[in-house]
Structure to design on (726 residues):
């Protein structure tokens, strides 16, 4: 890995060693305070939780105290500066406050706007990271859906064997902080052989009764699919108000042998809010993951998606679409760990950037020794609708097996002149041709969502947003 | 009034002149073929007529149905009834041919002051034209030209022409990349669109296509000008003798 980060040095260095030392010296005392700042409910959690969990959270807290937040001096975070997000203060939210928000008219309206028209989705609502059963649907047969706090109290054995097994506090400060600070979230367990046609729709809402207070939330999600189970999960990250909020979710998903998980994530938070997510997926023999992330809202959005193909013939398909404008910054980081043989993986990440928006895609592919017949294809494409928008796309291939196929490609630029002319020569005016091509570019990614009702819903969102970004 | 009247057209790209004083008149109901060796300016003519901005028109005039064509944007030309079947149709992943073509047709209908077609009526029209080009129903859902073979792309072009119902169709090397079966299908499609109120300009390198789409007039393009015009027999003569023999006759050009 990289150099051990200096504790608390979450500001980019100015110039020269002397100044770095000064920054360290000044910040060290502040650093201890920062843990309280970022995990106000920690004490409460620790006393309620079982001892193994308390130990896990304490270890994560210790780790966080050691490493602090990543800075732009870390290679993995070079292009995403989180300093402004962690220097501001956030309001806290206790469980009781979150549950009380169930009747807040703004919350009710937000949930109504997110209903999937024809999907009969199983709705699961998180407010500021707390599961709100009152607003959530009953779990269908074959599926267990429990609020995390409840599961922890009753001591579900599955939790202990799965929680924290993929998301290690060592990965980066945000994962450590989530592990140290989370006090609720969702545990979703699908029994072997169960195929769920309805999607689970997790609505993760950020909301504070006082509109002028931003919220800091550390939602935790744990998903477990038994062998031959099939599940589609749509997660909508929404909400926020006048003051900036920050969500720091961590998800771990275990996909059993021959099971299939489709994950669709829509980040549609308030433009002042930020979202740093760390998702982990473990694929057993012949298990499949199909993921799609749509980034629309937010000031700084970072999606870390790490997938281990840990059984022969496991398959991962990772797709993404970002529609950014203003000064939005979206960073998609994927890691595909090909640990076993005969595993295909496919990645297509697309970005449409307007104004001064910035985009980052980094796709790391690790092919371990023995992972023969790996077939991996990675593509990143960006359209820049403005001269001031920028995209940074980096593949990172590490191959330690000899009989593999790995390809990657990346394109960034304005809309294609030949395509524009083709459309205009058929009668569409220049504005409509632009809008049409922009939509086509997006639709090419959206079409890869398998679940039809979810695909339709995502498409509607994109069409709506494109009317603003590229009218026509 | 002629449907298309090109007078002393000079055009080029990047300061290099490609069309050097081209004259051409097409009346409604006529099928014209322009033949010529590589680099003679055939595709440039097709692209200039359709309004491709890469090419710069330096002098001359093009009147289309009494309007100054060169003053019109590409989409206005399409709305006025000009259609270009591309030599290399581009792929547009993400949107289906039917969605694309419905948008195009309705843009043109709107321009003409006609009501827009609804989804049902459009689908009926599209299916009938697909049948004409012997295209499989699966084309409906596939993205525009994406993953199409060369033959499928060309068929798709003529199918679009049939749907958009232009007054003047310019076919740019529609025969290139077609096997004999596809050539017949495409030609049948074009022939079905021959009409008293429509002009067709076929741009081709080879005479082969003209066995199936029999032209009323054949023109030979060389160095950016038409150097000889005749009837369909001129094409046969070119096939037999090549383009070389015309060199000597060049001063006699139109």
């Amino acid at each position: 890995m990289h150099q051990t980060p200096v504790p608390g040095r979450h500001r980019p260095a100015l110039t020269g060693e002397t100044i770095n030392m000064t920054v360290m010296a000044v910040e060290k005392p502040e650093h201890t305070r920062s843990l309280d700042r970022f995990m106000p409910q920690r004490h409460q959690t620790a006393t309620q939780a079982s001892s193994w969990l308390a130990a896990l959270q304490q270890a994560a807290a210790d780790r966080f105290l050691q490493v602090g937040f990543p800075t732009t001096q870390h290679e993995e975070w070079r292009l995403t500066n989180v300093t402004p997000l962690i220097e501001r203060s956030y309001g806290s939210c206790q469980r009781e406050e979150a549950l009380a928000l169930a009747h807040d008219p703004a919350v009710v309206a937000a949930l109504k706007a997110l209903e999937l028209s024809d999907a009969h989705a199983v709705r699961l609502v998180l407010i500021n990271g707390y599961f709100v059963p009152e607003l959530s649907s009953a779990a269908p047969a074959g599926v267990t859906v429990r609020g995390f706090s409840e599961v922890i109290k009753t001591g579900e054995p599955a939790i202990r064997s799965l929680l924290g097994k993929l998301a290690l506090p060592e990965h980066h400060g945000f994962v450590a902080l989530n592990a140290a600070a989370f006090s609720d979230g969702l545990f979703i367990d699908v029994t072997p052989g169960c195929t769920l046609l309805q999607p689970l729709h997790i609505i993760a809402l950020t909301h504070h009764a006082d509109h002028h207070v931003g919220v800091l939330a550390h939602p935790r999600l744990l998903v477990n699919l038994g062998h031959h189970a099939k599940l589609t999960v749509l997660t909508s990250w929404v909400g926020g108000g006048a003051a900036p909020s920050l969500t720091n979710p961590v998800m771990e998903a275990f996909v059993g042998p021959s099971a299939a998980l489709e994950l669709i994530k829509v980040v549609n938070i308030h433009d002042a809010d930020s979202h740093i997510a760390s998702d982990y997926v473990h694929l057993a023999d012949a298990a499949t993951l199909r993921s799609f992330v749509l980034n629309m809202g937010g000031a700084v959005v970072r999606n870390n998606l790490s997938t281990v193909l840990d059984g022969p013939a496991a398959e991962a398909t990772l797709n993404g679409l970002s529609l950014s404008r203003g000064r939005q910054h979206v960073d998609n980081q994927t890691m595909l760990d090909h640990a076993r043989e005969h595993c295909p993986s496919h990645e297509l990440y697309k970005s449409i950037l307007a104004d001064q928006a910035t985009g980052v895609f980094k796709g790391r592919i690790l092919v371990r020794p023995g992972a023969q017949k790996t077939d991996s294809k990675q593509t990143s494409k960006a359209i820049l609708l403005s001269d001031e928008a920028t995209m940074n796309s980096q593949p990172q291939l590490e191959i330690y097996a000899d009989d593999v196929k790995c390809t990657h490609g990346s394109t960034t630029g304005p809309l294609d002149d030949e395509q524009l002319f083709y459309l205009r020569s058929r009668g569409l005016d220049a504005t409509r041709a632009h809008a049409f091509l922009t939509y086509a570019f997006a639709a090419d990614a959206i079409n890869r969502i398998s679940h039809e009702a979810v695909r339709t819903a995502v498409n509607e969102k994109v069409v709506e947003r494109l009317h603003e970004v590229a009218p026509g | 009034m002629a449907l298309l009247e090109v007078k002393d057209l000079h055009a080029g790209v990047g300061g290099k002149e490609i069309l050097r004083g081209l004259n051409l008149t097409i009346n409604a109901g006529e099928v014209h073929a322009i033949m010529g060796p590589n680099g003679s300016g055939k595709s440039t003519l097709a692209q200039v007529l359709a309004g491709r901005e890469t090419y710069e028109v330096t002098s001359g005039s093009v009147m289309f149905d009494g309007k100054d064509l060169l003053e019109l944007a590409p989409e206005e030309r399409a709305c006025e009834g000009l259609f270009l079947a591309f030599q290399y149709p581009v792929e547009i992943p993400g949107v289906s041919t039917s969605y694309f073509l419905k948008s195009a047709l309705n843009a043109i209908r709107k321009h003409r002051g006609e009501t827009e077609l609804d989804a049902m009526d459009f689908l009926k029209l599209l299916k009938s034209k697909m049948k004409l080009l012997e295209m499989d129903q699966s084309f409906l859902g596939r993205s525009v030209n994406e993953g199409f073979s060369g033959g499928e792309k060309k068929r798709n072009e003529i199918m679009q022409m049939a749907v958009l119902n232009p007054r003047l169709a310019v076919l740019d090397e529609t025969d290139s990349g077609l096997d004999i079966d596809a050539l017949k299908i495409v030609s049948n499609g074009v022939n079905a669109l021959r009409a008293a109120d429509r002009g067709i300009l076929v741009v081709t390198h080879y005479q082969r296509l003209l066995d199936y789409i029999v032209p009323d007039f054949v023109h030979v393009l060389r160095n950016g000008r038409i150097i000889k015009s005749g009837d369909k027999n001129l094409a046969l003569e070119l096939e037999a003798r090549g383009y070389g023999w015309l060199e000597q006759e060049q001063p006699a050009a139109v």
Notes: Chain B has a mean pLDDT of 93.
